[in-house]
Write a sequence for this structure.
């Protein structure tokens, strides 16, 4: 198998369905911008075809140097890969695959994307790291919990409609992580430095519950991993109540950076121009 940085320059995003993925737009933008002779393709593979694709990728016979994995393949990809990194092992899911010294490697860059977005859009956001409140305990919240914990937050409160799922994550991510019911959100928000929505609430402009963000420490940060619409109901409400808000689009853009660098050998920039391209694409539907 060839190394990701040698001759082959073909990467993919594999999912089922995958037609709504904006990853091809992002990676194609960078390939053009950096004049790299490569391509990034959508691959729609049903679950029954996924294991044989992973096998071919590992053997170096797929024609690809690596790629992204999206829903519903992230967990099965983790199980099929021999050599996931520590982040992926704790999450039990991967989103980025690449070939290195003849071995198929895997990681999960969602947590990196989450942190890099905040670092980029709100420098100093992590000056106070006493308490973070995370709404939701689905697949997307795991990488966020891990990232916030690894950035050094003292208390992380995971609140979910189905409390049992929040408890499972508290058990998985260690004693700084506490579980609670959705209804405890206002109460746990008291004195918090960071609030993150990882649920699907607010997607496509739907109504969300009203929270009292003013209970948080003044000047604290509210962010949402939902990015359609860009300013979700949570963000609008938090902004109105005087909080600093960061939309979730940057997480999508930044999570793509490490993969691109591994496949194509150059680290790309998340620029305002790229952001605007993706927003135009979202508007066009
Ligand atoms: P993902 O992998 O994208 O995180 P998911 O696993 O389906 O998707 O999780 C979606 C999250 O949104 C969950 O935390 C879910 O709560 P439950 O675990 O109780 O299902 C949350 N969610 C979705 N709709 C919700 C609603 N109407 N009210 C509260 N939480 C909701």
């Amino acid at each position: 198998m060839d190394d990701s940085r040698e001759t082959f320059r073909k990467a993919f995003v594999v999912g089922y369905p995958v037609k709504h993925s904006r990853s091809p737009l992002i990676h194609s933008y960078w390939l053009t911008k950096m004049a790299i002779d490569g391509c990034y393709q959508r691959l729609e593979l049903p679950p029954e075809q996924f294991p044989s694709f992973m096998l071919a990728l590992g053997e170096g016979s797929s024609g690809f140097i690596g790629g992204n994995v999206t829903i519903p393949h992230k967990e099965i990809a983790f199980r099929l890969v021999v050599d996931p990194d520590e982040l992926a092992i704790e999450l039990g899911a991967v989103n980025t695959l690449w070939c290195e010294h003849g071995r198929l490697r895997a990681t999960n860059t969602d947590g990196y994307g989450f942190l890099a977005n905040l670092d980029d859009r709100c420098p100093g956001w992590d000056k106070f790291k006493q308490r973070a409140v995370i709404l939701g305990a689905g697949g997307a919240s795991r990488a966020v919990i891990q990232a916030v914990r690894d950035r050094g937050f003292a208390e992380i409160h995971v609140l979910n409609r189905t409390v049992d799922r929040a408890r499972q994550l508290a058990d998985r991510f260690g004693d700084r992580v506490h579980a609670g019911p959705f209804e405890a959100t206002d109460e746990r928000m008291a004195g918090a430095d960071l609030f993150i929505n990882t649920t699907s609430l607010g997607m496509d402009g739907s109504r969300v519950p009203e929270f009292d963000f003013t209970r948080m420490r003044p000047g604290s940060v509210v962010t949402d991993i939902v990015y359609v619409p860009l300013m979700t109901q949570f963000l609008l409400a938090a902004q109105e109540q005087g909080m600093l808000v960061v939309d979730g689009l940057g997480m999508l853009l930044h999570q793509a950076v490490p993969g691109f660098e591994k496949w194509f050998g150059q680290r790309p920039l998340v620029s305002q121009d790229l952001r605007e391209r993706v927003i135009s694409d979202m508007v066009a539907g």
Observations:
- The radius of gyration is 19 Å.
- Residues 272-284 form the longest helix (13 residues).
- The pocket of 2'-monophosphoadenosine-5'-diphosphate is lined by residues 136-141, 160-162, 165, 182, 198-201 (CB under 6 Å).
